[in-house]
Amino acid sequence: MTPDLTFGGSGDLVLQVTNFLTRLNLLKSESRIFDSTVAAAVKEFQQARGLTVTGIVDAITLRSLDEARWKLGDRVLSLATPTMRGDDVAALQSQLSEMGFNCGRVDGIFGMDTETAVMDFQKSVGVKVDGRCGPATIISILRLKKIVSGGAPNQLRDAVNRAERGPALAGKVIVIDPSQSPEVFDLAQRLEGRLIALGVNVFLTRTSTSKPKEIARIELANEANADLVISLHQDSYVNEKAHGVSTYYYGSDSHGVHSIVGERFATLVQREICARTDLLNCRIHAKTWYLLRLTKAPTVRIDLGYETNPGDTKRIGDPTFRETVVEALMIAIQRLYLSAENDAKTGTLKVSDLRRAGVRK
């Protein structure tokens, strides 16, 4: 496992990192010393990529740097082992999607959906159909890009899929991903019970004692064919004054893509929690964290206050507060599937209202 690189470090790995940063025009020259200039460049890169801004090059930042160095045409893209990842893959996916070829989520990972989309495109333009994106395929894409454009087909498909499932929760699959905090896990179990009572198929990614790694939790959500994934946590910070609730969804300015359903649900969650509690509104944010990026279903992470803030710790420790948050989440989930004309003012809808409206048993 690659050790984290931080201020004061030195060596060949620092040289590699500064080489990537230089190629991305974030540094003027390479260096073997991890000084304040390098740390500032790392922070700028992390901010642009939707990563946690620390100035430290951990394994995720190092992989993201490696992915960022690839431009479409630098290499032949194909389904391979290990899986090909990079900005070139994301550019390919984005352009195919704009032309109406379904490659799934624009995530910069060349998987089976991307290969199928490449083959469908190759069939349509009369080049060799092999699922490999080489010079001939790229030239065809660039030629057609000038005359073919769309809105956001992938995002529209997500929205249509959500609408087709209808407003009722019964039969939907929701994965709840709680942190190991006893209070957060209790909140997750309360939410689980409320959802099960309404006919939802619920999966918890953890038990009270297990500590599965992030990739295992992602695989569970994908194998469950989830409609929605809700990840519950508390944040932390060196300054105990930091407090409030934040919600995160998959989005990348560099890839020009975001989860339209994830953003919608994140907005609903943030509004409902802030309307029903006194948690400070720290807004919603687009991120490319692995859980958000690699989970196929719309996924949000909710940070319910800061475990380093005495006030937030007191709030989450109160069972009444946790029940209020559960109510907010239940309403946000239902509002996600309601059509606009059936929606209501934030903070006013109750589960009993939904039963009377006929969308609940």
Structural overview:
The chain has 361 residues and is of the alpha/beta class. The protein has 3 domains: 12-68, Muramoyl-pentapeptide Carboxypeptidase, domain 1 (Orthogonal Bundle), CATH 1.10.101; 87-151, Muramoyl-pentapeptide Carboxypeptidase, domain 1 (Orthogonal Bundle), CATH 1.10.101; 166-356, Aminopeptidase. Helices cover 46% and strands 12% of the residues. It has helices spanning 12-23, 36-49, 59-68, 87-98, 112-125, 135-145, 153-164, 182-197, 214-223, 260-276, 290-294, 310-316, 319-337, 351-356, and strands at 173-178, 201-204, 228-235, 245-252, 257-258, 281-287, 299-306. Strands 1, 2, 3, 4, 5, 6 and 7 form a 7-stranded mixed β-sheet that branches. It is globular, with a radius of gyration of 22 Å.
Give the gist of this structure.
This protein is an alpha/beta fold.
List strands and helices in order, with pairings.
Elements: H1 12-23, H2 36-49, H3 59-68, H4 87-98, H5 112-125, H6 135-145, H7 153-164, E1 173-178, H8 182-197, E2 201-204, H9 214-223, E3 228-235, E4 245-252, E5 257-258, H10 260-276, E6 281-287, H11 290-294, E7 299-306, H12 310-316, H13 319-337, H14 351-356
